[in-house]
Write a structure and sequence with these properties.
The complex is a heterodimer of chains A (409) and B (139). Chain A contains 14 helices and 17 strands. By secondary structure, chain A is α/β, with parallel strands linked by helices. Chain A folds into two domains: 132 residues, Alpha-Beta Complex (Aspartate Aminotransferase, domain 1), CATH 3.90.1150.10; 255 residues, 3-Layer(aba) Sandwich (Aspartate Aminotransferase, domain 2), CATH 3.40.640.10. Chain A is globular, with a radius of gyration of 22 Å. Chain B is α+β, with helices and mostly antiparallel strands and 139 residues long. In chain B, helix 2 crosses helix 3. The two termini of chain B are 22 Å apart. The chains are: A alpha/beta (409), B alpha+beta (139).
Amino acid sequence: MTSTRLDIAKIRQDFPLLSREVNGKSLVYLDNGATAQKPRQVIDVISHYYELENANVHRGVHFLSQLATDRFEAAREKVKTFINAPHLHEVIFTRGTTEAINLVAHSFSKAFLQAGDEILISAMEHHSNIVPWQMACEDRGAKLKVIPYNSQGELILSEYQKLLTPKVKLVSVTHISNALGTINPVKEMIRLAHEKEIPVLIDGAQAAPHLKIDVQDLDADFYCFSGHKVFGPTGIGVLYGKEKWLNAMPPYHGGGEMIKTVSFEKTTYNELPHKFEAGTPDISGVIGLGAAIDYITDLGVEEIGKWEHELLLYATEKLTQIPGLKIIGTAKEKASVVSFIVEGIHPYDLGVIVDKMGVAIRTGHHCAQPIMDHFGIPGTARASFAFYNTFEDIDRLVEAVKKAVAMLS
Amino acid sequence: MSIALKEQEIIDEFGMFSDWTEKYEYLIDLGKELPLIDPKYKVPENLIKGCQSQVWLHAEKTGDKVVFTADSDAIITKGIVGLLIRVLSNQTPSDIINNPLRFIDQIGLKEHLSPTRSNGLVSMVKQMKMYALAFNEAQ
């Protein structure tokens, strides 16, 4: 029935949380778009770090500080390989995608954004890729312009091209929409922007767990993603930036680590990557992220993508058989995310009943209020799959949704 | 009827349910009853927006009592709104201000009043108490 080479049953055993119960039922975890579960391999690496390797990095002379630094920088190397970044110093660690975008919004704007300029984002962005730009535009007297999408949730490239005027200083767009599941043609969008010499930031928060990321192939100027969505710990994320941009941008946060020399008269800043990594970093987070990258690289990102696509097709087929159910986000190119509404039923009510049956989905606006306003709905119910989900998980979801619909109609 | 008696009535009603399905079916039925608020009061000033669902709340002083009417766009939220109105409406401001609403916990619905739910209920309860405070100051 399936062509996957992944041994899903064996993989599931790596994830302790998947075998717990919720509301007296075995857990069906379908909220991976919000955060992913962690394999034992990642949990153990973090515990091991705190038990045997914990020390501050970059500053010390003693054995443990050297060991911690080696582990830390080895993880940076893993991230570089994971996204095929050309230079190690172009990999900046942040708290997550949100902080990465805020960093660029703040520092890029300071260097390059003037009154009357424009920043271009899409209408399907997560609030993290809207609000920092609104704040930057307000601060600099610039304007925010928005690329529209069609009724299937696909960006309209002809409109995008019209919006690429000489006033645009940066385009910031999501690789995969968390609310709609749409995979955007970012490589093409970057090419079009570069024809006008406009740099592009890609929000890869939802993409990093599902696609092979190659920042050189995309020719992305900035690319960011979160550790906790790629099966790593919370509190860690990555900003990749081309050195030509990062070198031209002022620091974001000030403090230790990001300096070269400090005096009360003048302070000089450190080189990349440390210029943008002020203070003690999330050392265990970085090392845990490295372990997570090892884990999914071993499984094979292409294999993961193929299995998830099977899940998407199965879920779409089964859910659309439910009378009154409508899928929101029907792009031709989609990741394993299914957002849906059922006629006459509020997504909150649906989510509450489905939760009672042990199935974890997310309801509401998914930090994408503009999308919900566009479709004229209060929110959606969203099931987002990872490689450890199964057809049985989807059967449980469908059963739970049917029960909820019966109770709420 | 005093708040304490009304709460006890609800606790007794919910005590009859043997599983979550019965409890939620009852809540859904409560939610489906006729709207609890006059449509003319469903205005932006009375709207409490949550991330998950929305609530409208209207308050009036009648004699020495505060009368609440409310509605929600989600049925389960509306069912709980109905229970809160049943307990807190038609009571004096000081009774409303001082009530800890322990009955919600006792009927196993505390999760719906958790701030993380963001369904508008926590804000609605806060707003009800603020109305009571305001009416209290005014008298």
